[in-house]
Design goal:
CATH topology of the largest domain: Rossmann fold
Strand content: 25-35%
Low-confidence stretches: none
Largest sheet: 8 strands, mixed
Number of strands: 18
Number of domains: 2
CATH class of the largest domain: Alpha Beta
Oligomer: single chain
Length: 404
Amino acid sequence: MKILRAEPEDWERLRDIRLRALLDAPEAFGSTHEREAAHTEDAWRNFAIGWEGTARQAAFVATDDDGRWLGVALGAVRQADTSLANLYAMWVDPAARGMGAGRRLVDAVATWAAGTGAERLELCVTESNEGAVALYRTAGFEPTGGRGELRPGSGVTTVTLRRPLAVAADVVDGLMAEQIRYYEDRAPVYDELWYRRGRYDRGAAFNERWFRETAALEAAVPDTTGLRVLELACGSGLWTRHLAPGAARIVCVDASPAMLARNRETVADPRVRYVEADLFSWSPGGETFDLIAFGFFLSHLPPDRFTGLWTTLREWLAPGGRVWFCDDVAGPDRPYSGNAVEGVPIANTRTFDTNDEYRIVKVFWHPRDLESRLAELGWDAQVRTTGEHFLMGQAVPTGSPTPG
């Protein structure tokens, strides 16, 4: 079984499973089959992504190995209160119940909502639906005391349940410290995954797809000829080796001494200025840059630091400058390695050759969500995927000319 993100192009399948749900369990939903059967194509497309200027929405579906849709759940964050996310339209085909689809759908919505920065996730469930209530309670939801009527005149009572999503500041600080230790310890073997060597060799077919996409990422690195460049979380030098040769000036910042040492060895360019520093406390001292670049950094950024980072980037960017980035993209079976951390939806576990386990921040972005989030912060962003594994994009402050 897989959990997939539905796209607007899936509107017919999304319509079909939603109408099946309304027929199967009419007393579980605030809407009706009659009402939604009349929806237009545009309405079903919006069902997958939300309504511009009103809400961001994500639809997740559970599929079997043959691609059949077995269940659905939607998450929504309304612009009126982005600290609150709602889970609704949750349904699993009766033939697939008891297989874990419901819990995985709930967790997918919770992880997505936490990544947007929402601090709590709420839902309404029919009070008499003991199975659904039990599922939500085991997934971390608790009653708020709120009660209501399913639909006017229905006579069916619903209760409101809430699951906290916000991660305590001390937990975030601990994750970030452990994340630095992870990359410090992994520095000697970090590039093994990129080149699919040793334990990371996934076989010819997977590796071929992987290398096709890594080549696309590397080809997309901007031309830096004559530019003042700042690279954040520069790591082992995968991106520095492309950014440095043409740059008029390049500053590379990372919190890991071992990664910086690896970068120096890989790039071997005396013009590169390396800075060992915490990115959240470092400042370039008034210097501005034509290009700010980072690879595989956004997904390691806690949601409560997202706004602050992009505010700072605007201050560091020279007039006419831009930000370029790449990262892992949200998708099925994420993460490929490690596991989600129970109760901390923004965290995953990681191991490598030593088999020591680390907990790190990992937030997988969908291109559309990232563009929308940046637009809310005053950035014009263009984000696309390379296919299965990665996303890449560039952003300029709203109103600035978009680089070609």
